[in-house]
Amino acid sequence: MEQKTIAVLTSGGDAPGMNAAVRAVVRSGINRGMRVFGVYRGYNGLLNGDIQEMNLRSVSEIIGNGGTMLYTARSEEFKKKEAQERAAEFCRSQGISGVVVIGGDGSFRGARALTNAGINCIGVPGTIDNDIACSEYTVGFDTAMNTAIQMVDRIRDTAQSHDRCSIVEVMGRRCGDIALQTGIATGATAILVPEVEYNIERDVISRIINTQKTGKKHFVIVVAEGVGGVEDLAKYIEHRLGIEARATVLGHVQRGGSPTLRDRVVASQMGYEAVSLLDRGIGNRVVVMRDGKITNLDINEALDMERVFDKHLYKIAMSISI
């Protein structure tokens, strides 16, 4: 029987835990008797021939590292059908019959295109934003939240020392999951997310005033990246209430760092499942977490899903953050 050859790449924004997923793909593939290639810098690596065969030692000591050893990129060129055909032809020239793509929705669209060009692809959700509708969890989310918690806790120390209001912007693009869960975990007075329409007077000013009545003199407001405007919000609070207010944008510090236990384990599970699918000749699927279990979905079905924001959890946050 001809030895099966697969490849693995990381695409889009980096996320802690991507290395754990790469490690799982390489080692589970080799354990099944496959040859496994690492593709560097996302889909650009397939267009430029930037690949290298991996062995067991290629992925030693990476499970605890942030970022991605394969590097990553967003490829505008790969959106063109000619480029997709060229990438598929390169895969065939190397004997590669399947590719594991670790990334977000944009990366999965590339995986679908490559599958349509004749190379089986499996998507693994890797993004700190937790904004992939088909999966209730994405690799990198837990680490990003834990980083945000540490930063907000430190900012709170200063806010408390100065009787100050600190407005903290966390990442997440159009998804408020990091803001919501970080806000709950840090006892934020108010949490602003793009999924819930807000009114500054009702949802920020009134909450601060009501909290002041209970004797509290320092406040933390957590704002999702998709809402933004933290500098203006700080000025408004200071003008409206006469309390010192400062804005902090956490930014890319949330992307880096050693992945948490959860991200390492989930990434390993998902990488293993992706290889299992390719070993059975199955492509055009996305490995997902549903009801706490690792499973897989058709990539077309997955990309058509609409993400559901946890409004019940948001209601809890508003009830206990007083």
Topology record:
Blueprint: E1 5-10, H1 18-31, E2 35-39, H2 43-48, E3 51-54, H3 81-93, E4 96-103, H4 105-116, E5 120-125, H5 141-161, E6 165-170, H6 177-186, E7 190-192, H7 200-212, E8 219-224, H8 230-241, E9 245-249, H9 261-279, E10 285-290, E11 293-298, H10 299-304, H11 311-320
Parallel strand pairs: 1-2, 1-4, 4-5, 5-10, 6-8, 6-9, 7-8
Antiparallel strand pairs: 2-3, 10-11
What does the model show?
The strands form two sheets. A seven-stranded mixed sheet has the order 3-2-1-4-5-10-11, sandwiched between helices. Helix 3 (81-93) packs across helix 4 and helix 5 packs across helix 6. The mean pLDDT is 96. It is elongated and about 75 Å long. The protein folds into two domains: 5-140 and 259-304, Rossmann fold (3-Layer(aba) Sandwich); 142-256, Phosphofructokinase domain (Rossmann fold), CATH 3.40.50. The chain has helices at 18-31, 43-48, 81-93, 105-116, 141-161, 177-186, 200-212, 230-241, 261-279, 299-304, 311-320, and strands at 5-10, 35-39, 51-54, 96-103, 120-125, 165-170, 190-192, 219-224, 245-249, 285-290, 293-298. By secondary structure, the chain is of the alpha/beta class. The protein contains eleven helices and eleven strands.
